[in-house]
C-alpha cells in the first residue's frame, strides 16, 4: 500500500491516465490530489467524472484548488469577488465549453463533488497537503482567511528565497517551515523557475510541474520520493492551446 500525491491536472485526463498507469497504481494505494482539476485543456468534465469514479474504488483525498472554486462559483452563479472574464482567459473557456455538452443531472453531481473538496489534508505523520499554502505562523488550523489555502503564493516564494545555510533553530528561520514535517503543494508551476520535475525547498515539495501549460503531470510517492510523469500536455493535446 503506497501513498501518492498528484499535481495540478487542469483538464488533462490523458495525462492523468498516463501517470496512474506508469506508477502502477492499485486500489490498495491512497491518492492525494492537490487540486486544480479543471480549466486549461478540453477534458475538465471528464477529469471530474474520472475522480468521482476513482473515489468509489479506493481511498482518494481531493484538495480544493483555486480553479475548482472558480468553476464552482460559475456553476452556482455566484459572482461576488469573481471576475468571470479573467477566469475565462485563464482556462475557464475550455471548462465552459465542456459543461455546455452535459446534462443538468451530471452537472449537479459535479457541483456536489466540488462543494465537498477539502481545504487541506494532514496525515498521521504530520505531513500537510494543500493546494497553495497557508500564512498563519502556527499552521492551517489557525488560518483566518480560508481562501489562502488555494490562493497563497507566499509559502512557495519564501521557500525559494530561503538561504539553505540558515538552520532551523535560527531566530530568522521562517516559523511556517517548522510546523509540519513536510508540506506538499501545487498552484505555482515549477516551470516558472525552469524546472519540470518536483522541487523541494526547506520542508516544501512543489508537485505542480506545469501541466496547464507545456509541462508534464506528475505523481509522486510521498514516502520514497520516486515520481512518474506524463508526456508534456501540449503534446498530448497538440491541437489545443491549454493555458498557453
From TrEMBL:
<protein>
    <submittedName>
        <fullName>Metallophosphoesterase family protein</fullName>
    </submittedName>
</protein>
<dbReference type="Pfam" id="PF00149">
    <property type="entry name" value="Metallophos"/>
</dbReference>
<feature type="domain" description="Calcineurin-like phosphoesterase">
    <location>
        <begin position="1"/>
        <end position="158"/>
    </location>
</feature>
<dbReference type="InterPro" id="IPR029052">
    <property type="entry name" value="Metallo-depent_PP-like"/>
</dbReference>
<dbReference type="InterPro" id="IPR004843">
    <property type="entry name" value="Calcineurin-like_PHP"/>
</dbReference>
<dbReference type="InterPro" id="IPR006186">
    <property type="entry name" value="Ser/Thr-sp_prot-phosphatase"/>
</dbReference>
<dbReference type="InterPro" id="IPR050126">
    <property type="entry name" value="Ap4A_hydrolase"/>
</dbReference>
Amino acid at each position: 500500500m503506497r501513498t501518492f500525491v498528484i499535481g495540478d491536472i487542469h483538464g488533462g485526463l490523458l495525462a492523468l491516465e498516463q501517470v496512474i498507469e506508469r506508477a502502477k497504481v492499485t486500489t490498495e494505494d491512497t491518492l492525494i490530489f492537490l487540486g486544480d482539476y479543471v480549466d486549461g485543456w478540453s477534458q475538465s468534465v471528464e477529469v471530474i467524472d474520472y475522480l468521482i469514479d476513482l473515489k468509489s474504488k479506493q481511498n482518494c483525498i481531493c484538495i480544493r484548488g483555486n480553479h475548482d472554486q472558480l468553476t464552482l462559483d460559475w456553476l452556482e452563479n455566484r459572482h461576488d469577488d469573481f471576475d468571470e472574464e479573467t477566469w475565462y482567459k485563464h482556462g475557464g473557456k475550455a471548462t465552459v465549453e465542456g459543461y455546455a455538452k452535459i446534462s443538468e443531472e451530471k452537472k449537479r453531481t459535479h457541483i456536489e463533488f466540488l462543494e465537498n473538496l477539502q481545504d487541506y489534508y494532514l496525515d498521521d505523520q504530520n505531513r500537510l497537503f494543500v493546494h497553495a499554502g497557508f500564512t498563519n505562523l502556527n499552521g492551517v488550523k489557525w488560518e483566518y482567511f480560508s481562501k489562502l489555502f488555494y490562493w497563497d503564493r507566499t509559502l512557495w516564494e519564501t521557500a525559494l528565497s530561503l538561504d539553505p545555510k540558515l538552520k532551523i533553530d535560527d531566530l530568522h528561520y521562517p516559523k511556517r517551515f517548522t510546523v509540519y514535517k513536510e508540506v506538499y503543494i501545487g498552484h505555482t508551476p515549477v516551470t516558472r523557475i525552469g524546472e519540470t520535475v518536483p522541487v523541494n525547498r526547506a520542508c516544501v515539495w512543489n508537485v505542480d510541474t506545469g501541466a496547464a501549460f507545456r509541462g508534464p503531470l506528475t505523481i509522486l510517492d510521498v514516502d520514497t520520493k520516486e515520481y512518474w510523469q506524463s508526456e508534456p500536455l501540449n503534446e498530448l493535446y497538440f491541437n489545443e492551446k491549454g493555458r498557453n
